[in-house]
Amino acid sequence: ADPPSPDAIVDAFEAVLGPITNYRPSHPKGTCAVGHFTATPDGTRLTVSPVFSGQRIPTLIRFGVGGANPNASDVARSTRSLSIRFDTPSGDVWEMANISAPIFGAPTPQALVDGLLARRPDPATGQPNAERVAAFVAANPATTLQGRWLAANLPPASWATTPYWGVNTFMFRGQDGQVRPARWVFEPRAGVQRLTEEQVRTIGTNFLADEMRRRVATAPVEFDMVLQFPGQGDDLLNPTIAWPDDRPRTVVGRLAVTEVSAGPGGPCDPVSFLILDQAPGITMSDDPTLQARASAYAVSLSRRTR
Ligand code: HEM
């Protein structure tokens, strides 16, 4: 069957959440920041993209909290996010949206849409129909894997202390002309720190933004961008399955967050963090979940800014 159209995907979000008004249907809670990215020599070798020239590239950065609620709790067992727009001197723009889990919650766009529609509120009760949800989950077990990962890992203690995975596979053209599939992760230079069970109960639901402002006031918050390359038999096209940890990894650049907006909103609001026209040298793999993203993000952006 054909994959769902970008409009059908965004319609499915609206069927569950109600009409999109002025905020994102996914990760609407967030804080905007700026910084810069500098490739390592390995990064310059592994991709011809101008983002990886080795020059300092200005970035627009958005930290977010997963789910669909602009007042989501910072201690929720959902993902946190790191979205980046790289503005190269040549005018090429690269955008990405990363999450604090190594896997996504749907193996295909159709499973995402079906999962949303299964959770549509029942007109009689205003609540999702529990039987319909259970039947969907039973038929689509891969959609439970991300939730299980999140249940097994306490939430990050800071936006600065979690890895953020790109999840989908992309194709990187190197200086040698070879095209290599890879996934990436941004590793926190501050180390990985999670809340304790006690902190989950006591820290409150809205601490992440101020904590980040305090950190960045002292020193830039930094992440190493790491490419991971697949081994024999690794699935390039299914974002609900992570590749084993022992696969080859190369540090390709460093991101520094240097300034955080005073409040919510700001210059990140009119950005979807996955434009259709990505920087040259890096292309999308055939992962259908990735292929579905850019146009759906554009439709969502146009609905929330109309
Ligand atoms: C079929 C696959 C997917 C669909 C249809 C989808 C859809 C969407 C939509 C419609 C938005 C809101 C865009 C806007 O209004 O600006 C969004 C945001 C987002 N998505 Fe996805 N998504 C998909 C897969 C993923 C995956 C695999 C990841 C993990 C890397 C991801 C991470 C995010 C993040 C972090 C945001 C918020 C970006 C920001 O900071 O503004 N999505 N997604």
TrEMBL record:
The active site is at H27. One of its GO terms (cellular component) is cytoplasm. Keywords: Heme, Iron, Metal-binding, Oxidoreductase, Peroxidase, Signal. Residues 1-306 form the Catalase core domain. Its cofactor is heme. It comes from the Bacteria. Heme binds at Y297. InterPro entries: Catalase, Catalase_core, Catalase_sf, Catalase_SrpA-type_pred. One of its GO terms (molecular function) is heme binding. CDD domains: srpA_like. It is an enzyme of class 1 (oxidoreductase). GO terms for biological process: hydrogen peroxide catabolic process; response to hydrogen peroxide. Its EC number is 1.11.1.-. Has an organic peroxide-dependent peroxidase activity. Belongs to the catalase family. This is Catalase-related peroxidase. It comes from Plastoroseomonas arctica.
